[in-house]
């Protein structure tokens, strides 16, 4: 088992307005991304081969998956299938946890 303090992970801007702390599990099967998103920030439509689960920890995040839109609030989770076209827009400042399988690289 491995343990890590989130404060020890450097911030990385993965998209304008999306500041992330990225970690991979020791097995290299999962990527966890803790993201602070500025209110009003739009993540344009995109797709990737990884399955993604987005958990909103604070704020309101609008997610559109394959044309279906939902506003997620704390305690809500969005599941994005592999290769599904999706986008997001922050209604407020948000703090989210994205989990990807298999591992996702942000290089």
Automatic annotation (TrEMBL):
Coiled coil: none annotated. Residues 34-100 form the Cupin type-2 domain. It holds the Pfam family Cupin_2. SUPFAM superfamilies: RmlC-like cupins. PANTHER family: H2HPP ISOMERASE. This is Cupin type-2 domain-containing protein. The lineage of its organism: Bacteria, Pseudomonadati, Bacteroidota, Cytophagia, Cytophagales.
């Amino acid at each position: 088992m491995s343990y890590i303090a989130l404060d020890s992970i450097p911030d990385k801007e993965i998209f304008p307005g999306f500041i992330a702390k990225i970690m991979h599990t020791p097995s290299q099967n999962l990527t966890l991304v803790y993201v602070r998103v500025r209110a009003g920030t739009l993540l344009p439509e995109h797709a990737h081969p990884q399955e993604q689960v987005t958990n909103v920890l604070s704020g309101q995040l609008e997610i559109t998956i394959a044309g279906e839109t939902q506003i997620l609030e704390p305690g809500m989770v969005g599941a994005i299938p592999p290769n599904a076209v999706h986008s997001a827009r922050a209604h407020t400042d948000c703090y989210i946890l994205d989990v990807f399988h298999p591992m996702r690289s942000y290089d």
